[in-house]
Every structure is written in C-alpha cells, then in structure tokens.
Amino acid sequence: MLLADVLYKKDLTRDDLIYLLSLTDADEMQALYDRAYEVKAANVGRVVYYRGLIEFSNRCIKNCLYCGIRRDNDEVERFDTDRDDILAMAKWAYDNQYGSLTLQSGERQDEAFIDYIEGLVRDIKALSHGELGITLCVGEQDEAAYRRWFEAGAHRYLLRIETSNPALYAKLHPQDGHHQWQVRKNCLDVLRAIGYQVGTGDMSGLPGQTIEDLADDILFYRDMDIDMIGMGPYVVHHNTPLGKAVVAQGLDSAEGKRRRLELGLKMIAVTRLFLPDVNIASTTALQALHPMGRELGLKAGANVLMPIVTVPKFRSQYLLYDNKPCVEDTPGQCKNCLAARVASVGDTVGLGQWGDSPHFFHKQ
Ligand code: SAM
Ligand code: SF4
Q1: Which of 47, 249, 290, 361 is a good FRET partner for 145, with 20 to 30 A between their CA atoms?
Q2: What is the rounded average pLDDT for all residues in the chain?
C-alpha cells in the first residue's frame, strides 16, 4: 500500500501505526506531519491552548531511573515554593489570559501534601473567580485524594503511563514494590471514573523500547479513552542510572538525539491521525533536543503548549533532564517567546480559554 493511502485511511490498524512510526525518509516523514496538521486543523482547529506550568516542588518519594529529581539524586537541592509565590504566579497567569494552569511536582502521598494541594486549588479558583482551569500532575494517589482535589475544582489530571509495556516499565523503575505499572494504570481508571479529563503519555526513544511498543502506547490511549496526551522524547539526565547507561552505550550521540526527536514528532503525528479529537501537547522535551522542537510538534499535529510559569529562582532546581530550555527566562519572556513560536507556525493562541479536549465532550 502507498503511504498516501495509509495517511488518508479512516481506521488505522496496529500494522498501519507501526508502518507510519517506522518511516525514516525525510519526504515521507514530512508527508506524515503535513497530513497530521491537516487533521488537527479539521478537528481541533489551528488554535494553541496554554497550560501555564508551575513546577512547585521537586521533593519526590519515587526513584524512577530516568528522572533528574528522583529521590536518590543527591546533587539536587530540594525546594518547596511558598504558597504566596504560587498564588502570585497563578495571578500572573490569570492576568495574562493563560486560561488554565498545570500544577506539577514530585510525588508525595502524605496527608499534609493532600491538604496543601486541596487548599491551593481552592485558592487559585477563588483568585481567578473560578475562571482558571486547573490540571494537576502530582503522581499516583489514592481515590480519596483524587476526589478531594476534583471537588476543590481541579478538572484535569495528567499521569503519564510512561510506556504501555509493563515489562519495559519494570526495567525503567526500581523493583521495590513502589513503582508498579498496574497501580499507575489503575490510577488512570480511577481518575476517569471521578470525572476528570484524563491525560497520559509516554516517553519515546527509551532504551529497549521497540516501534511496536510505541504503536501499543497509541492503542493504549484509545483503549483507556484518554482525553489529552502529554508525551515526549526521553532526554538524558547525566546523574541518573538510565542516563549513565545510555551515555556509556554511546546512545546519547547527536544521531541518538536526532532519532529520539524524530520518534517524538512521529508519535504526535500518528496519534493525531489515530485520535483526531484529543488534545496533544508539544512538550518542552522536544525543545531540549532541537531549538525549534516545540514548533515542529505543533506542525506535526499538537495543539497545546505548557509555558513555564515556575517561580524563576526555582527553575534551575526542577531539572528532569539535561539541557532543559527556558530555565533562565522570566514568565514574561516565556510568554513572548511562545507567542512568536506559535505565530511562526501559522496558528493562533486561544487566550483566556480552558481549551478542553473535544474528545471529553464527544463521549458525554
Ligand atoms: N511526579 C509526577 C509523575 O511522575 O507523574 C509528575 C512530575 S514528573 C517529573 C512528569 C514527567 O516527567 C514524567 O511523567 C516523565 O515522563 C517526565 N520525565 C522525567 N524524566 C524525564 C526524562 N529524563 N526525559 C523526558 N521526560 C522525563
Ligand atoms: Fe518522581 Fe515523577 Fe520524577 Fe518519577 S518521574 S522520580 S515520580 S518526579
């Protein structure tokens, strides 16, 4: 079958997903991105929605082998942002018509943390007269915590499955009983049952990950009825077990990075073809691998950006991977820079809007 036939096919099969994700010819990959952009324009519009990202704490009880803020990375100076500073950043986002916020941190499950998030969500809702949408991205929790936060006003939750392959997940996490794929998947089920718009995603280009695994990640998004997808390439952090192994094997060469960037972009494009009405983020990790990474993501079918609104003094302490962009920028600089990036693609910014996933409403 010709590439054009697959690009315009209505119901893509697993084999089609594998075929598209396997493309390596530059013209063929461009045809894939162009078609995905058409599908985005037709289904979610050429409008990019912002989720101002406040990375408010890098304390984490987990030890994911790839992540720069894992518990055992003792090079990291741990921080908690003062509540007033978070509220000031939220107010800034509201005044600048960001429409919605994502609160992200390392994982904690203690009662004080659960209370703290609940109060924070209520305060942000109050200061924005209920107008700011709130996405939480604070890891695995029990149902009671997710429910309290939903009732406080959070309406979206992002929890990446990281990979839909449990055996690969096991290789990327310590086998200490606290990092279990099935527990993470159950959290997604609970979040959906509570009523959240549910986001998940993967990392692409992980050592040991196959193209079939990536195709299965996309099928997982469909099977889990996911509303929004935040995925991106794996990027090395030098002081992590996985990062050290990847560097030692020579896999973090320029060629290795180019391959991971390409996989990240192909994942966006193929997901857009397969799930036309979901929200897909063009993530910062793309830009860690290419100066125009986020524009390329928008051109490949993504429709969400997450401008960093983290308090500037803490940005350099929330490093999940090396070469994280925007660390030196103020929120104002990020805003202007992203507006220019969106305009360069030919999209517009959906200022002041939540930009909810159309998929969430299509299934109501
Ligand atoms: N702690 C929460 C959790 O894990 O769900 C939320 C914050 S965590 C830092 C957000 C995401 O960062 C993870 O889901 C993971 O996919 C991503 N991440 C961590 N290390 C990364 C790396 N080296 N390269 C790319 N993404 C990474
Ligand atoms: Fe903690 Fe999330 Fe990093 Fe895992 S990915 S170590 S849970 S911050």
Answers
A1: 361
A2: 95
Give the Cα separation of 126 and 131 in Å (integer). 9
Q: How high is the pLDDT of residue 336?
A: 87
ipTM above 0.95, yes or no: yes
Atom of ligand 2 nearest to the CA of 71: 6
Q: Contact 285/232 with Cβ under 8 angstroms?
A: yes
**Closest approach atom of ligand 2 to CA 320:** 3
pLDDT tier at 364, thresholds 50, 70, 90: low
Residues 6 or more apart in contact with residue 327 via CB below 8 angstroms:
315, 316, 319
CB 229 within 8 A of CB 273: no
pLDDT for residue 332? 86
Residue 162 pairs with which residues in a beta bridge? Answer: 202
Q: How many CB atoms lie within 10 A of CB 171?
A: 15
- Which atom from ligand 1 is nearest to the alpha carbon of 202? 16
Q: Taking residues 144-165, report their average pLDDT.
A: 98
The domain segmentation of the chain, as residue ranges, is 3-362
Confidence at residue 359, expressed as pLDDT on a 0 to 100 scale: 86
One-letter amino acid for residue 201 of the chain: G
Question: Radius of gyration over alpha carbons of the chain, in Å?
Answer: 19
| Whether CATH 3.40.50.2020 fits 3-362 | no
Q: Is the CB–ligand 2 distance for residue 242 below 6 Å?
A: no
57: CA distance to ligand 2 center in Å?
11
DSSP string spanning 181-202?
Answer: HHHHHHHHHHHHHHT-EEEE-B
